[in-house]
Amino acid sequence: QRLTRSGARPGDIIGVTGTLGASAAGMQLLADPSAPGHAATADLLVQAHLRPEPRVALGQVLREQGAGAAMDLSDGLMGDLPKILAASDVSAEIDLREIPVAAAVRALFPEQWLTFATRGGEDYELLFTVPEASWDSTREVLTAVGGQVQAIGRILPADGAPSISVIGLDGVARPETPGAFDHFAQGG
To answer: Which of 9, 13, 137, 165 has its CA 20 to 30 A from that of 91?
Structure first.
């Protein structure tokens, strides 16, 4: 059995490994050396961008645990989640309050951290779905092999075309526009 994008089912928990946004923050620091930040912290973020570490071992664990769908987060959460939704013909609800973001990213980029975490990309963490009944055991096994894992949402039935709803930092649900962050846009 291999991990695919097409196995997400309504009721599945959506999870991610690691933290999101560090690579985009590192890219921003490389693009704007005058950005504020403690040198050691900034260097860690730059390294996250320059030398991502694919989560091969965690992917193997997910396969063994029966993950429905999984993929690398290379185009950011809002760039990659729609690929799973389309392949599986489902929709999703994501709780932005649950997205794991490194404290350094939040501290150095108080206005941009959420955009980096949801649309930044190049983190090479894993985005995956597992049946709700398997979530606790999957989380335990991933944690035991050194992985950080966080539930960030749930798969829903597609009502027409696949869509994403987000629960904002304010706790209010709203539709979300899919897509990745354009690092080369003016002011971005």
So the answer is: 137
Distance CA 36, CA 42 (A): 9
Spatial separation of the C-alpha atoms in residues 68 and 142, rounded to whole Å? 15
Name, in order, each residue with C-beta under 8 angstroms of 29's C-beta and a sequence gap of 6 or more. 35, 37, 42, 45, 46, 108
**For residue 71, what is the enclosing H or E element?**
strand 69-72
The per-residue DSSP string of 78-145 comes to HHHHHHHHHHHTEEEEEEGGG----HHHHHH-TTTHHHHHHH------EEEEE-GGGHHHHHHHHHHT
Find how far residue 178's CA is from the centre of its chain.
13
| Other CB atoms within 10 Å distance of the CB of residue 15 | 23
Q: How far apart are CA 15 and CA 135, in angstroms?
A: 9
β-strand 149-157 against 90-95: which pairing, if any?
Answer: antiparallel
Q: What is the pLDDT of residue 91?
A: 96
Residues listed for the chain? 188
Top-confidence residue, 139 or 59: 139
Read off the pTM.
0.88
d(CA 39, CA 129): 36
Question: How far is it, in rounded angstroms, from Cα 185 to Cα 16?
Answer: 27
Q: Is the pLDDT of residue 18 over 60?
A: yes
